[in-house]
Structures are given as C-alpha cells and as structure tokens.
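Reader question, answered in our methods column.
A reader sent in the components of a multi-part assembly and asked whether the whole thing could be modeled at once rather than chain by chain. We filled in our standard form and ran it. Here is what they sent:
COMPLEX SIZE: two components
ENTRIES:
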Amino acid sequence: MSDGVVKILDGNTFVVSDPRGDIEASLTDPTGLFSFDTRFLSTWVLTVNGERLNALSVDDLQYFEARFFLVPGTGTVYVDAKLSVIRQRAVGDGFHEELTILNHADEPIELAVRVDADSDFADLFEVKDALKKKGTYTNRIDEDGLHLVYERETFARMTTISASGPAAIDEKGLTFVVTIEPHGSWTTDLDVVTAVGAGGRMVRPKYRRGERRAQPNMGRSLENWLEEAPRLECDDDRLRATYRRSLVDLAALRFSPLVAGGRSLPAAGLPWFMTMFGRDSILTSLQALPFTPELAATTLQALGDWQGSRIDDFRDEDPGRILHEMRYGEMTAFEERPHSPYYGCADATPLYVILLDEYERWTGDRSLVRQREHEARAALAWIDDYADLLGNGYVWYQRRNEQTGLENQCWKDSWDSISYRDGQLPGFPRATCELQGYAYDAKIRGARLSRSVWNDPAFADRLEKEASDLKRRFNRDFWVADEGYFALALDTEGHQVDSLASNNGHLLWSGIVDKSKAKSVVDNLLGPKLFSGWGVRTLAEGEGRYNPIGYHVGTVWPFDNSFIAWGLRRYGFKDEAATIAEGILDAAGFFGGRLPEAFGGYERSITKYPVQYPTACSPQAWSTGAPLLLLRTMLGLEPIGEHLVVDPALPTSIGRLELLDIPGRWGRMDAFGRGRVDVGSRPSRRRRNTRSRSRTRSS
Amino acid sequence: MSGPIEAFFERLTGDGAGALPRRASGSLRIDLGSGATTERWFLTFGEGGVSVSHRNAKADAVIRTSKDLFEGMVTGRVNAMAGALRGVVWLEGDPTLLVLFQRLLPGPPSTAEQGTVVGGRRS
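And here is the structure of the entire assembly that came back:
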C-alpha cells in the first residue's frame, strides 16, 4: 500500500494497521479496529521475546483479508532469521487473526509471544478533530478472555479478545509461552469481537449457524459480484485492469444500512466514510447503473426511508430533504454532532429524483418508482418550498446549525470553494449553478415519471412548466456573456459569482444549458484554463483562488470529469467526451487502476504524470465509479424505450472495446466500439467514423 | 387527563400521519416504563394511516423507553435515533417501520417557536 498502512474492511468494520500488522494509535492517529464509527482497538502490538517484528511482505489477499510475513528484529538492512511469523487477519464483526510461528533452526526454541491490546474507544470525529473522551474505561478478565469496556452514562462499547490456545491474560494483553520443535511450527487463533451495549446489557454479533468466529459478511459474494457485472474485452491491458479494480473496490465499498434488509449501497470512501451519504451514494449509484443496478435500488430505498420530515435546525433537516450523512458513534449519540442523520446538503434531494428516473430508464423497475412516489414528490416539493431561501425561484443553501453544520452544501464543500474571479468569497445564502441544473433535471425527470408511472399528467405539466421557466431565467441570470460560460453561483444581491469552474460540465449533464450556448461552454471546459490534459480542473487557471493543489480550487476530480463527459455526450460533443475519458483513464493507469479522489491541476505536458492530492480515503466511491461512467460515455450507452442504444466514440489509444452482458430492461446486451477519436489532434479534426453495432441476447 | 403523549397519538389518528408513505404497513408496539406499570401503545400502519390502541400483542417492531423520554420524543426534545445510539431508547424488529415511525415525531420546539426556517413555504 502506498501510504504504508494496511487497510482491510467489511461493511463499516475496518482495520488499519502498519505493515507489520501492529496498531499503535494515538488520539489523532487513524489506525485501529473501527466499527460503527467507533475505534474498538487502539493498541495491538505483537512481540516475540520482547522484540518487535520486522515486515518482510504484506499480501492484501482480499479487501477483507491480509497476510503479514514478519521476522524478529527491527533491522532494515539484512535479516538472518531463524524464525518466521505469519499473521493472517480477516475482518468480520471484529477480526480474526491466525498467528503462526515457524522455527527454521535445528534446535527447539522457547519463546514468549506477547500481544498487547487496549482501546481508547474514540469516535471517528474525535480521531479527526483530536477531542478528549468523557466516559470511563475498565479492562477486566474472565473465562471468555480480556474485555475492554468503555462507558458513558447508558452508552457502552466493549471489545473482547480471546485466543484458541492457552494464554496468560492480563489487563494489558495476552502472553503465550511456547516451545517449537526444530523446523516445527506453532499456531494460535486470536479473536477480537466488538459489542455494543445499553442499559447494562451488551449485544454481541450473532454469528451464522455453525460459525463461532468473525467472518466477513460480504466476502463470500465477491466472486458472484464480479460474475454478475458486464465483461470487458479490450486491447488495452490498463483499461481492463482499471475496470476490474473498479468492480472490486466497489464491492469493498458496499455498506448495508439496517433499513436495507441485507442489501447494500455504496458508502462514500474507505475507511473514514464507510457510511451512507446522500450525495456520494447517489452519484456513485448513477455511475454504476449500467454495471450494478442493485446499488441504485438500495440507495433509493434507504435514503427514501430516512427522508427528512420536520424542521430541525441542529440537523439542518426539512420535510422532503434527503440526508447528507449518517453516523453511529458516541458524539452523534450525545448530540455533540448532528449526524443522526445530518441533512445539510442542497444537491442530494434533486439528485434523488434524477436517480429514481435514471434507474427506471435502465431497469424498467416501475414498482420501485411507484413505491417511492411519496418520497419523490416530497423531494420535488422541497426544491420549491424549502430550498428557495430568497423566494426568487432558485435553489439556495445556508446552514442553520452554525456550530457543526456544513457551510458549503454543494459537492465542493470546502470553505473557499465558491469565489468571485478576484478571489473574494460571497456571503450566504448561495445559489451555486449546478444546483439549478439538478433542480431543472429533477423536474423534467419527475414529469416523465409522473406521466408514465404515477398517472398524474397535471403534475407532469406543472413540473415541465416550472422547469422551462427555471431554464429560461437561469440562462439569463447565470450567463457570463463576455466569456461564454455560466457563473459559479449567484450571491444574495443577484450578482454573478463569476469564476469559471468545472460546474459548467454538470450543467451540460443536467440539460439546463440552452443549445445555442453549449458550444461556448464546451470550448471553455476544454480550453487551456480548465483542461489540464488529464481532465477538467475544478477551478480555472487564472481565477483569484486558483491553486493546482487546492482541494476544490484547481485540482482535477475524476468523478467530476466523468459527469462532465456525460454532459458533453448529452449535447453531442462526442470527441470532447472521449478526450476527457482518455485523460482520466490514462491517469488511472498511474494509480494501478485506482483513481484517487483528486489529483493536481498541473499541466499534463509539464508533470507527465498525475500528482495525487493527499487524502485520507482510498478507494473513494465516486472515483471508483468514474471509469464505469466513462465507459458508458465512450460507448454512448443510452436506454431509449425498451432498447439500449450504443453510439461509441472512443479515443484511438483504446483500440477495440467490447462490453458484454450489460444488464437492463432489455435483459442483457453487448456493446462494441473501436477507437476512432484522435484525441491528440482535437479540436481541429472533428469527424471520424465510429463503427458500432449492438445485439440483443437472450438473458 | 390528557398529556403530550395522548395528544401526539390523537394527532396521528387524525391527519398527523401525512408524513408517511402509503407503503408503510405493519404493527409497532411502544412499551413505556417496565414491569407492572408498563404503559403500552399499539400502532397499526396501513393505507397511509395509523390506528392506535393499548393492546399488548406481538408486533413487527417494538420501541422500549421510559415515559419521560418518550414524552421528550413526541414533543421534539429528544431525537429518537440519537437516543437509540445512546442506549436510552431500545429498538427491536423491522428497522424500516422504526425509521418510518420516527418521521412522525416533531422537530425541536425551539425551532418551531422561533420560526428559524430561512426561506419558508412560498405561496
């Protein structure tokens, strides 16, 4: 692993350790065993005869399983080992570790094997913000092993550590005194089990019948997951590897909220964002729709169940609003953080309606659309009744929770992401441009569902009229006429926050852009100020706050680019979409197929390789989904009625591309394309021939 | 005598269940307190409405808490989810039904009194 830590996970339980498999966390150090946003183990250190071990190699066998090969001594130059130590660890509801020691010598050997264990039971928020704990700790021993307990009033969390072999257990860990014969070996199984308590009772995980220890819940279905996804055949080895990496990472990012009845939706990122997020779960589900449509179904169900129903300033909740983030830790429990759940985002609600429609267009699952009519109507009502803070027909955001709420409730959520060209920041509320696009698209799509599924043509007419009115006003009020692009936002005075930003691409995706303005918008997106050669920068070079390594003010985000490419296709700019696809997929090759959340906005011709933005989460769900959406845009996949239309426009570097067994309302279909877009010569050479065919197969 | 809990259930059986989707169906029992003095409320959801009784019967989902805390929930002073995470509200059974039920609980009173919604409903 590139950052020297080893991460394995299952659902929202994960272990982050050093390459030896050891955990030595401080309050601010993000290693440990975590489950439901709580650290259950902050110390887990293996010594043999009092000596720390040295890592020879680490295999991350699966995302839920790792194997560490170790030798005694901490020397880094040369190791003359008479002993080998192997730790094989799998995450389940806690983790299971098989510890094996091999004696390579001709003599028997006596060893004291020690595992130190402790937990600070930090809330993830405390790890991020370095906060102090308010409860009390008890470590106690009984016949079940060593129990580490944390209690604060009625809130209790417990970690139990036990071993299969005879061990001397004290309050700080376990010691094994063992003799290993010449060329022999010794093994013991260590189990770490998490438990959640309340009212004096502890609830430990219920294992499946016949299982006595933690087992990964999702691991067994990985093979099946890969088999169910469409097959990619192509000449480009790197693209094949990227595709497989995306599918495996998407499997790892599956999270099963309680209301989902065992089904999963995409969590936002590993390890810190293994929870339900409105925006991230929806956008990733959209990216993955042609590949794994069940993620979208679960996202719609779970987010729909948790839809806001009342006004709650602490949680920035309104009736009809789709949640931003759900958390389960101590600070959320004691309402020191508002994530139970927190609703402060302005885009998830319109995006919910967009996903519902796109899901139906792909899958033909009208029953889910019927079942979620209530939520979709409430979401559409939220746009008009609660998001229009100034009463002028636009979506605005301003947090009501001034202490712990989010300032910027759009995807660019860092403090300085929304600025004028001169670098000044506007006041609140703010109406960013892409929110208007999403609202427009939600109304158009809501109208389609209303007419075709809910049997309410009057509501459909009303939504279409509102959408067309919004589009007209938007193209007037947000258009920066001199430069030919849409302003990043409007301020409360109605003035344009006039920076050139990647949000213009989302506007193309939403369809809110007047046809007559599209060409100019595209020229800006692929012009030298925004396009780095790898992708479109979040903020254009030359803007006051531009910084090639600024989080939302100059870096290139793969997810952002995948939606921009979709937008370019929507307006017929196939070559430009292929250009972006090639840049981002080339970048993926530098990261072993796993795209980071963001990389530097440096000019491609200068750095030659994409400079990764340092970030805590990898893989990140919507970066994982980016290659999938790019495959869709390159192949020009579009469900029209009962059919899948294929209209490929591939960069020449990709060569032949076949995506086989694409699931949808048509059963399964194959799509073929051959690279014809000469990206290097853009934009002078516009036309090329694409060869395509599609055929329906019985499924 | 009619307290906030009675008032809450009265509203529910009126038109107070408007926040519920029609698909909500099943039974939910609310046990307040413990032992012989346990106060029970039995809710049946269906067709977008709720009926309420004091039956002591098996239900698809159960909420157990103290009368004080439940009074806090129905007056918006206690958040049900945070209470469950804290271990003062116990939830059992069908999670979807429990999540749909919490939608019926009001927001914090301070919010409503101060009317701090920045925008508010447009006519």
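What stands out: Chain B is about 35% helix and 25% strand. Confidence is low (pLDDT under 50) at residues 112-123 of chain B.
Send us your own complexes using the same form.
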